[in-house]
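Report of the visiting student (M.T.), summer placement. My assignment was to run the structure pipeline on a short list of targets and document each run. The first record concerns V-type ATP synthase beta chain.
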Amino acid sequence: MIKEYRTISEVVGPLMAVDKVQGIKYEELLEVRMSNGEIRRGQVLEVNEDKALVQIFEGTSGINLRDSTARFLGHPLELGVSEDMIGRVFDGLGRPKDNGPEILAEKKVDINGEVINPVSRDYPDEFIQTGISAIDHLNTLVRGQKLPVFSGSGLPHKELAAQIARQANVLNSDDDFAVVFAGIGITFEEAEFFMEDFRQTGAIDRSVVFMNLANDPAIERIATPRMALTAAEYLAYEKGMHVLVIMTDMTNYCEALREISAARREVPGRRGYPGYLYTNLATLYERAGRIRGLKGSVTQIPILTMPEGDITHPIPDLTGYITEGQIILSRSLDKSGIQPPIDVLPSLSRLKDKGTGEGKTRNDHAPTMNQLFSAYAQGKQAKELAVVLGDSALSDVDKIYAKFADRFENEYVNQGFYTNRTIFETLELGWELLSMLPRTELKRIKDDMLDEHLSKGV
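After the run finished, the structure tokens were exported:
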């Protein structure tokens, strides 16, 4: 039921208090009509007896307490969904910003979504090919998984995000595949980079893009990932598509939460973030998954920049608890010119074993993955030893491992942002690198597999 009040009592920053309200609900939308006829939108943050605390999307400057009216609309923030959204660009509140026509919505959906019953969840176990060797082979992404990218200021996470959006597909499947991209608090230059890349490569034709810029209101920043996930759920569970959701940058989302929490004078938690940060992030990340009996799926790759490169910071720390692994970008690899600078040793995909093997990728996927991990770790250790004691302290095998580590970084990880490798090309490259090592060192691969794949005389 729509109700209108002339009882605005206080304005503080982006917040506004309305007195003597009745039947108002948490997260309900409202419109504020100002004395000059301008209308601004807002959302209820808190209701205490007959008082409502609301946040205005466009800010509260110019609002006259006596002459302005608050009109509560009786429903939360909603997104009009339709298949026509594919190929379109929207702002953080779901309004078209590509100069195209308005979307003729099939229906309007609450952006806060519905909780997926754990009993109805299907286990993620189908391989998604990103075309990036360090992910596909060593930290495999599977359909329905949430696998974040931990980056740092100045690292090329936007190039990695664009590459994944451009190249990702479900292997051995004719089902429709779509990408939903959410830019959260990004700069104008970053937004232009993504849009130019999507248009030039044709990725926009299968994408739904939501762009929230750094100068947009904080409350819009909080809505943007929910808008993206609502669109993804519609395409996945009602239209049967496999949807990959890429959200960058989740750190900006958490900063917006902290800003609003401070404006509400809430008791701060770790480093000033609200105590409900974990719960709030979980309401986003847990919207990934597959549902029994439905063909579609929602897979998430949230990207966040770790403040000061600190992986123990609350944002990456809590994200790691909720999600199924992490891809970590390395500043030292980036300085060495390795692109993408994925640090494979601390990176992890907890569901990689479920999406690999015969019928999904190849039967030598897991053994070669384990052997490459082991050999690269030993090579790194040998190089560190050489720095301390000199090359003369290394055994002949140690020197081979050190050379292996160099080739692994320069040929395997360093594929660039525009090389799209199939998983089979990646596996063959892995075998080529492993052929450097003495056969006696390949202890994680069975003899019959070594006989089949290693070149003669090795």
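The CA atoms of residues 36 and 178 lie 43 Å apart. The chain has a mean pLDDT of 92. I thank the supervising group for their guidance throughout the placement.
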